[in-house]
């Protein structure tokens, strides 16, 4: 009997090993694709960006990388593959569980829709720049964060966050202060493993898990408490106004308040359902636009001739507006300036990549044939149910096959010349084929708002100020939740964009 027991151990171990090998061989259905070595078993989000470009340059636009727990990832920047995953077969490629955990920590549960403009906030920041009338080094990113937070507050919620004034009430602005860099940079392996592990748990346990009071989890759950409190205050204030017959007419909030008060169970939304939608908008609606605009100002500071050209373009638009007898440009006027912005959206897409997971066996088509490890070429990639996929928006936006041999250079003329038409054979994204707002079913709901808002900001700022690079300051993009500007050799837990601002 004891000898039987002794035998059982090795047999069980062998069976387990065979089971693992079978699972592994299934998992490795994309093993024939080239890619970096598997020695890094933990997926480090801070490596996004530069790594996206290096992988793509070295191995191609559809390759294999590895994520936490050694899981094989189809890593692609191929336009047709992205179009297939995000648009054509979008329902079959939802966000993987571990990414949903990350999003829940930063935004709560649930996105929503928004439109509007932001003039008051922009004007206030412009006055703020002018405080002493002399050229000065300004961290324009902080100013832009406050501008865009107040703008989304006014436009979507009819609420003043007082971010620009920095009044007592600006608790949300304070809670946001470098929240993403602090919670994304230098994460220990434990934190990465724990977050991936949470993705395997039922959602009620995830909710509990993300409140563990350590590191990134503590930081984000403290922030979420503030955001939820502010959201509740807005609901209370707007409900009160609505009941007094003074509801804001077109902001998103008045729609939510009406849904909250609805007697009809089909249209009723509880506060529990509304709050995550609001906290999603708080974050998605301001940090993104602020960071993109900061990169734009950086490029204009680097290329003064482009700054002059844009200033002339703004002056021309303003002259047309004045001739019409208007005081403000219309949306059509702003749309006329779209292409300058497109290069920043493309070159400085601040969401580096997105993850998706196949819910069924599928075949992903490729636009650019991919060389395999065995030196043959494939034009599509069969994937099994469960295949983890990373779509590199960052690498796609700089793909030479799409944007030309100088894709790694900031070049606004790219969108003016019309020379891209031939290479842009696949329609992806929501605007001029750039992927910065994602594409298809889950693309950015605020892209239109963001484009108009950024143009409104740029019009005010570039007309009134000249931006130049601060001496001896090297700025680089770091993955800090978003592709954020950081100063080489400075605090890595703070995103910043110091530029010299001179009133004109
Ligand atoms: C330059 C500015 C912006 C950029 C680059 C940007 C980019 C993106 C990207 C790449 C996604 C897809 C995320 C994913 O699939 O996980 C997204 C989603 C989203 N964005 Fe934006 N965004 C910007 C501004 C805004 C603004 C101003 C708002 C709100 C007014 C907004 C609201 C949202 C929401 C609610 C989603 C979630 C949509 C969904 O999952 O169905 N974004 N954005």
Task: Describe the protein in words.
The structure is a single chain. With 504 residues, this protein is α+β, with helices and mostly antiparallel strands. It has 20 helices and 11 strands. The strands form 4 sheets. A 4-stranded mixed β-sheet has the order 1-2-7-4, with helices on both faces. Strand 5 and strand 6 form a beta hairpin. Helix 5 (119-129) packs antiparallel against helix 6 (140-157), helix 11 crosses helix 12 (252-261) and helix 14 (287-302) runs parallel beside helix 20. It is globular, with a radius of gyration of 25 Å. Bound molecules: protoporphyrin IX containing FE.
What are the SSEs and their pairings?
Elements: H1 2-27, H2 50-59, E1 62-67, E2 71-76, H3 79-88, H4 97-107, H5 119-129, E3 136-139, H6 140-157, H7 171-176, H8 179-184, H9 189-198, H10 203-209, H11 215-243, H12 252-261, H13 271-284, H14 287-302, H15 304-324, H16 331-335, H17 338-347, E4 353-357, E5 362-371, E6 377-383, E7 388-392, H18 393-396, H19 400-403, H20 447-464, E8 465-469, E9 475-480, E10 482-487, E11 498-503
Parallel strand pairs: 2-7
Antiparallel strand pairs: 1-2, 3-11, 4-7, 5-6, 8-11, 9-10
Helix pairs in contact: 4-9, 5-6, 5-20, 6-14, 11-12, 11-13, 14-20
Family: Belongs to the cytochrome P450 family.
InterPro entries: Cyt_P450 (IPR001128), Cyt_P450_CS (IPR017972), Cyt_P450_sf (IPR036396), Cytochrome_P450_monoxygenase (IPR050121)
Protein name: Cytochrome P450
